[in-house]
Here is the input.
Amino acid sequence: MEIINTIGRRKTSIARVYVKPGKGQIIVNDRELNEYFQSEILQTTVKQAIVLVKADGQYDVTVNVEGGGNKGQAEAIRLGIARALVTINDENRPPLKKEGLLTRDSRMVERKKPGRAKARKKFQFSKR
Here is the structure.
């Protein structure tokens, strides 16, 4: 099996994910997973798809991720890994689909409108 290349997106984060057979090592932007994401929750989020299909320790994952914040990047990586696992084996699709890991979360930040403080918040009203 050669290297599987997929992409994952969330908010403004874009993750290019490369999966190949290996020992279960996850490298994000040339750093170890636990070095890049110090939070245990974000590490679990990234590994969620691999653990779900019981493939932990079977694949090496290399990720280039840019844009957004920590959570958006972690969820973009999760989507990329889930897509790669489906490409590797179609039997992985039903459990990943059931958990919603193959769905691109399309929610984005609403843009700021003119004449408003933020997207929806209005400036303070003063009667006098």
